[in-house]
């Protein structure tokens, strides 16, 4: 097992998430597909990790397991030393982890603002000052969505705007671990760079553990740690040495 030691990042590193001998097999009828094979990996607070890999290599599956949406067929996943099965997946998802989904998963009968404030209520996120509504508006504005856009039904927003609402919703939850599945896929380069800088700031200034699945080498270049999933195995990129098993 390894953990990255990049330079220039936050001092408050501590293991927060551990995957121990995790394997995952999908079964449908007579077909069984083993997507993940014996993955052993630790993620720390204060780091931004990019997970790369060819399409269909299991990146979304890895994220689903690590974010408590599904349970592995073998192995254990623990948060702060506690097995997720013991902690409770619902509690883990509500209190400790937020996910930005590839398909956004916004509540389509609500405005952008309501999507964010509802998530804050569910997770119990309380702003240091002001109301949830004012904090939500601020985060949406930081994402480039003004008040008029924030108070529009999400179905009346563009794909890129919906993606930013999904990011704002996750940021507002103030959790320990932020997972994101292709969070910059629908965004222009400048907006995407801004989002990646936000992720870096969350990790380095606020000590969050940020794990991003991506096909973007541009995003990966800004991550503290780059993992690659291929044929069910996870390897870590070390600049001078190339990829190596973890
Ligand atoms: N619910 C499911 N039932 C059966 N097989 C599944 C299921 N979900 C995913 N798979 C299969 O598992 C493999 C990995 O899928 P996954 O979505 O995790 O890959 P990915 O690396 O995220 O792909 P992409 O980059 O295209 O989003 C694929 O072969 C996929 O068909």
TrEMBL record:
Superkingdom: Bacteria
Q: What does this protein do?
A: Part of the ABC transporter FtsEX involved in cellular division. Has ATPase activity.
> Which family is this protein grouped under?
Belongs to the ABC transporter superfamily.
Write down the SMART domains for this protein, in alphabetical order. Answer: AAA (SM00382)
- Stretches assigned to the ABC transporter domain: 17-246
Q: What does the subunit comment say?
A: Homodimer. Forms a membrane-associated complex with FtsX.
Keyword set, alphabetical order:
ATP-binding, Nucleotide-binding, Transport
Instruction: List the InterPro entries hit by this protein, alphabetically.
Output: AAA+_ATPase (IPR003593), ABC_transporter-like_ATP-bd (IPR003439), ABC_transporter-like_CS (IPR017871), ABC_transpr_LolD-like (IPR015854), MacB-like_ATP-bd (IPR017911), P-loop_NTPase (IPR027417)
Q: What is this protein called?
A: ABC transporter ATP-binding protein
Q: Which residues form the signal peptide?
A: none
């Amino acid at each position: 097992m390894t953990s990255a030691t990049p330079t220039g990042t936050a001092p408050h590193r501590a293991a927060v998430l551990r995957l121990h001998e995790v394997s995952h097999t999908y079964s449908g009828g007579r077909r069984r597909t083993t997507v993940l094979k014996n993955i052993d990996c630790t993620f720390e607070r204060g780091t931004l990790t990019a997970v790369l890999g060819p399409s269909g290599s299991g990146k979304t599956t890895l994220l689903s397991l690590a974010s408590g949406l599904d349970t592995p067929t073998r192995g254990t996943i623990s948060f702060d030393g506690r097995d997720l099965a013991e902690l409770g997946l619902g509690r883990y998802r509500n209190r400790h982890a937020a996910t930005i989904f590839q398909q956004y998963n916004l509540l389509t009968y609500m405005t952008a603002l309501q999507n964010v404030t509802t998530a804050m209520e569910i997770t119990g996120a309380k702003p240091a000052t002001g109301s949830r509504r004012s904090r939500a508006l601020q985060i949406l504005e930081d994402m480039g969505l003004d008040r008029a856009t924030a108070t529009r039904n999400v179905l009346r927003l563009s794909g890129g705007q919906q993606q930013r609402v999904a990011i704002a919703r996750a940021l507002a939850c103030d959790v320990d671990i932020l997972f994101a599945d292709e969070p910059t896929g629908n965004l222009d380069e400048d907006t995407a760079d801004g989002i990646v800088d936000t992720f870096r700031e969350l990790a380095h200034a606020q000590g969050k553990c940020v794990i991003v699945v991506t096909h973007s080498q541009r995003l990966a270049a800004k991550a503290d740690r780059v993992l690659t999933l291929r044929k069910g195995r996870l390897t870590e990129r070390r600049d001078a040495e190339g990829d190596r098993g973890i």
